[in-house]
Write a structure and sequence with these properties.
The chain has 5 helices and 2 strands; from the N terminus they run H-H-H-E-E-H-H. With 123 residues, the protein is mainly alpha-helical. It has one domain. The chain has a two-stranded antiparallel sheet with strand order 1-2. A hairpin with a 2-residue loop joins strand 1 and strand 2. Helix 4 packs antiparallel against helix 5.
Length: 123
């Protein structure tokens, strides 16, 4: 079990590193001073995407509803991952839109790619 958790953490770190490199490539045309200032946003965007992918897998595997027993009652509620996903996808969109706005041409191609990701996640 412990080896599995370590393996999952290593995989998540690998995906984060790959995603951060992808976002940096997309932002390569941002003015260097602005890019330096936006470094934290690039890292945040990469983390958000990796986390969103994990939440999405969790919801796909476990379902949108969470059923549990409490004091003899059976309670059905929205899966906690759904609420976290909804909140984070908004942050992802806002952060990606801000980063793409820093691109010289307004980042329309990059913004289209990011929005395509968001739309795929909502299906």
């Amino acid at each position: 079990m412990k080896d599995m958790a370590i393996s999952q953490e290593l995989e998540k770190a690998r995906r984060f590193k790959r995603e951060k490199a992808r976002v940096r490539r997309m932002c390569r045309n941002i003015e260097p001073l602005l890019l330096k200032a936006a470094a934290g946003l690039i890292e945040e965007l990469a983390w958000l995407r990796v986390t969103l992918e994990g939440l999405r897998r969790m919801v796909d595997e476990e379902g949108v509803l969470d059923v549990f027993a409490q004091g003899g009652d059976i309670i059905v509620r929205r899966h906690p991952a759904v609420k976290a996903y909804a909140s984070m996808v908004q942050r992802y969109c806002t952060t990606s839109k801000f980063l793409t706005s820093l691109l010289p041409d307004g980042g329309h191609d990059v913004e289209d790619e990011l929005m395509a990701f968001v739309k795929r996640q909502r299906r």
